[in-house]
Fold this protein.
Amino acid sequence: MTTWTIASAVHVLLDAENRRQDIDPLSDSWADFALETAYEVQDETLARRLMRGEHITGVKLGLTSRAKQFRMGVDTPLTAWLTDAMVLPTGDPVPLGRLIHPRVEPEIVFVMGEELRGPGVTAGRALAAVHSVHAGLEVIDSRYRDFRFTLPDVVADNASSGFVVTGSVALPPQDLDLALEACVLEVDGQVVHTATGAAVQGHPAEALALAANSLAARGVAIQPGWLVFTGGMTDAVPIRECGHVTASFTSLGTLALGAH
Ligand code: OOG
Ligand code: MG
């Protein structure tokens, strides 16, 4: 067994990301790698990103739908950080050369209007703090070989963060039924997955409340202006060179991502 520390885990994970070299899950060689320790690793990787000039732009939830939980073999939702370096402008291709084995997943995204501070936040209270709802696509890229990980592993790895794209259609939350908001995911013109917002914790606002309450345990409140990616509604799809992924939503418009 390796003697791991928070500092050595942070170094190994950020190095894997920078060099685009996948690694074995930390839990393979870190006996009793605890969830609290994993969140400390995640927070320290954020600190390193901020030190190199990045800014927090929001938070992402992971593993909030059965489709994602089943595929990844982890059934507990988690939270992770989004920085400006992870934001891909709409229309830009996926920078494949900076990623190990990217996959794309459709998400419902909140732009926050007010601060949201847990604990005790309900879905209703959470939705009242939302400024606008958007379609989103997340490009995930686990640093772990073949996306094989335990919950602490994926938490430490900032929930496989890669890039996020936010749709330009912005609706106030009261203008749509988010549980019924549907998404059709196509790869190269073929429908591969479909879901509605109810796939995400029964309602994406439940995921937002969950984020506020779990961040409260880390002394953090969700800030006005932050993006909140509520988690993949469907299983993610690999994106290859010359591939095109399109997510069409009932009310939130269509988002496309290409790689070339
Ligand atoms: C973990 C990241 C999960 C989501 O939306 O569920 C995530 C993974 O699947 O590699 O971003
Ligand atoms: Mg995601």
